[in-house]
Amino acid sequence: MSEPDPIAVRVEALESLLLERGLIDPNAVDAIIEHYEKDVGPLNGAKVIARAWTDEAYRQRLLENGTAAIAELGYGGAEGADMRVVVNTDDVHNVVVCTLCSCYPWPVLGLPPNWFKSPEYRSRMVAEPRAVLAEMGMEIAEDVRIRVWDTSAEARYLVMPQRPPGTDGWSAEQLVPLITRDSMIGVARALDAADAGR
Hints:
The chain is mainly α. It has helices at residues 6-20, 26-54, 56-64, 66-72, 106-109, 114-117, 119-127, 129-135, 172-175, 181-185, and strands spanning 83-87, 92-97, 145-150, 156-160. The protein has a single domain, classed as Nitrile hydratase alpha /Thiocyanate hydrolase gamma (Nitrile Hydratase, Chain A, Alpha-Beta Complex). It is built from 10 helices and 4 strands, in the order H-H-H-H-E-E-H-H-H-H-E-E-H-H. The strands form 2 sheets. A two-stranded parallel ribbon has the order 1-4. The mean pLDDT is 90.
């Protein structure tokens, strides 16, 4: 059993103290965290990817200068000062990790998931990416090369997942729900067209 994260222990102690004194509502805290984890950040990234899937000129700008192209949609800031976009293809699958800590492109992905910050993910994704992806439910064919991008304080990476088949002619707005946070980290594929509930 691994030792608990000292920061998480302190946060939990502080939250318990605030709860005990009636200064915070636990449901409100959970709702705020869920909002940033699932809605605000990942929705921004999904809009970026959907635009790139439907607008070739934007896609080129995004690949040439991720930070500037993402800023065109109004997203940026300290945690996104140098954002780079890598593209999944039939031959190459990209996945992002931060081996030193948990650098993460907050403007387009929101709060990092706990597993992204875990020592196991940070070390194993570099050493055995195919195995880790399989454990996370994503089988990658042996003939597909896996590229692991080590994000840092200097450069944050965003994966452009492959566009799902059967979505030709869809608008960017229709495509957004298919693009998940995990697909933009590279640990999942974009959802199938059938999952959009068209």
